[in-house]
Write a sequence for this structure.
């Protein structure tokens, strides 16, 4: 404002000076015209003097105003500097106060978070312990009831479901240990697909050939290694499906054809080798070789149905989710309609499984062609595996994440899901018993006919319990007692060593009458050997008594005669 006023005053001075100069020029001109007009000249000089005085006064006013403006500017600058210093001091104080408040709030938040984490952890432990106690107690009592039921079908179904669930669990333990060891010492082999599958396939065939003389051992190897090879096939083809054919459901369906073609080629090659081995000696397939070939076919059918059922269920989950999801992962989010759609697809396969099981029973009763029976059996088992995998994915999608968020841990969520599937298996057994009472007498509930249903239910029960134990093992591994991989492998091997012998000796024979008769024959043979050993020991004791008597009667007799007499008596009693 002062600068504007100074500029305005300067402009006025310039205007007034110009006017004074004009008056001076006019006065000079008039003086030149009239040299005698001295009075006029004097007047002009006076006007010039007055203009100069006003200009000097105006200049002094401008200087005074400029000085005042400078003083005002200096005062304003000093006030601004003081205000800035005050503001800086105040800002520093506010910042320090805010920082202290933030630190205090952060400490309180951390403390509250720790307390909430401890509360959630205690809640998860409480729920897990309660569910384990109640669920295990109820499950054991239900197994006692079902395995001793008066209805033959209920007993057969229960033993087969229990055997299928335990064999699935043992196979997963064996697969995890083998897979982790291969990854640790050989690195990733996914760059060359299906190498592990082919190696495990060959090893399994050699093992079954080695134990072909023992029906129980050959059956156990066929079942256990069939599941294990199936999991290796699932890992290999699942990796291909998830990383190379993941653009659309139709593209991922291509992997189903690739897997089926490779497995059929492996089956054809091993079948030719088995036939050559069986006919190599005497040109005749005896009973032992026939049973061995049957077990090998069961092994191959198990691998095919498990693998193809899994791949089809992955395609169905891709269609429901809208994207490819890994088999060990859960889809993020998902609407209730999507989850219900996936579960509905699984239920449709389960209904078709039950219907086709009746058709399979009639086909087995009407035809003698083993190839036709095998194809029908593969189709039936495939339906069961697809239904089991699809329902399992749907139930995991529906319950695992919500329950884990509610309980604060995934262990109680997986435990409750395992208990739920176990109770569902009991419902399936009772429902099938009721259904068979309502249909005609042509339905033959033989073990091979029921294998698809029991295998599907056993797969769901075994996988849910395996996931629960796997989460528990991971929790122990994270405790820092040792290397996590070492703990996981050690606990898995311990569980396998405990589970496998009891399953083979006491559970698997209950699923097939031929195996049960074989075990009884072995027990009778063992009892006969024990009786023979007892008689031999008794004979030796009696012969020892007789030898002492002879020695007392004739102490001077020949030792050789007494020894011969003792041996003759022992041989006679034996």
């Amino acid at each position: 404002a002062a600068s504007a006023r100074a500029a305005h005053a300067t402009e006025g001075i310039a205007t007034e000076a110009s006017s004074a100069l004009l008056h001076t020029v006019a006065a000079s001109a008039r003086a030149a015209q009239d040299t005698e007009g001295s009075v006029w000249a004097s007047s002009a000089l006076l006007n010039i003097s007055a203009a100069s005085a006003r200009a000097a006064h105006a200049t002094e006013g401008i200087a005074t105003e400029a000085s005042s403006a400078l003083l005002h500017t200096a005062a304003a600058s000093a006030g601004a500097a003081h205000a800035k210093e005050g503001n800086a001091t105040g800002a520093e104080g506010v910042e320090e106060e805010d920082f202290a408040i933030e630190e205090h709030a952060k400490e309180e938040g951390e403390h509250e978070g720790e307390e909430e984490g401890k509360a959630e952890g205690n809640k998860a432990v409480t729920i897990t312990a309660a569910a384990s106690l109640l669920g295990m107690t109820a499950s054991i009592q239900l197994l006692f009831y079902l395995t001793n039921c008066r209805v033959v079908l209920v007993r057969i179904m229960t033993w087969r479901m229990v055997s299928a669930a335990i064999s699935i669990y043992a196979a997963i333990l064996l697969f995890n240990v083998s897979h982790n060891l291969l990854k640790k010492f050989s690195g990733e082999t996914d760059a060359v697909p299906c190498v592990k599958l082919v190696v495990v396939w060959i090893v399994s065939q050699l093992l079954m050939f080695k134990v072909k003389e023992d029906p129980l051992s050959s059956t156990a190897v066929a079942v256990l290694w069939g599941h294990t090879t199936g999991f290796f096939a699932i890992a290999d083809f699942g990796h291909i499906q998830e990383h190379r054919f993941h653009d659309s459901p139709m593209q991922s369906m291509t992997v189903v054809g690739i897997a089926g073609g490779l497995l059929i080629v492996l089956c054809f090659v091993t079948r030719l080798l088995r036939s050559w081995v069986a006919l190599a000696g005497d040109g005749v397939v005896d009973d032992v070789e026939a049973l061995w070939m049957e077990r090998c076919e069961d092994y191959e059918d198990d691998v095919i149905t498990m693998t193809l059922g899994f791949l089809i269920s992955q395609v169905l989950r891709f269609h429901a989710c809208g994207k490819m999801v890994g088999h060990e992962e859960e889809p993020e989010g998902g609407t209730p309609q999507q989850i219900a759609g996936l579960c509905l697809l699984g239920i449709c396969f389960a209904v078709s499984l039950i219907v086709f099981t009746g058709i399979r029973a009639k086909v087995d009763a009407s035809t003698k062609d083993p190839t036709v029976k095998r194809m029908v059996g593969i189709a039936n088992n495939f339906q069961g595996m697809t239904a089991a995998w699809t329902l399992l994915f749907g139930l995991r999608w529906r319950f695992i994440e919500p329950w884990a968020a509610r309980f604060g841990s995934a262990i109680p969520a997986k435990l409750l899901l395992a208990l739920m599937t176990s109770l569902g298996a009991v419902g399936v057994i009772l429902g099938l018993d009721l259904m068979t009472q309502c249909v005609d007498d042509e339905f033959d509930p033989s073990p091979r006919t029921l294998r698809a249903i029991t295998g599907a239910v056993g797969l769901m029960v075994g996988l849910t319990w395996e996931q629960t134990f796997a989460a528990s093992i991971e929790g122990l591994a994270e405790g820092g007692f040792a290397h996590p991989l070492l703990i996981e492998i050690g606990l898995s091997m311990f569980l396998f060593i405990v589970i496998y012998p009891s399953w083979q000796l006491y559970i698997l024979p209950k699923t097939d009458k031929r195996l049960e008769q074989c075990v009884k024959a072995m027990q009778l043979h063992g009892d006969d050997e024990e009786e023979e050993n007892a008689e031999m020991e008794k004979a030796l004791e009696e012969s020892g008594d007789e030898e002492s008597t002879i020695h007392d009667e004739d102490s001077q007799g020949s030792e050789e005669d007494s020894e011969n007499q003792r041996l003759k008596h022992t041989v006679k009693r034996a």
Q: What stands out?
A: The chain has a mean pLDDT of 75.
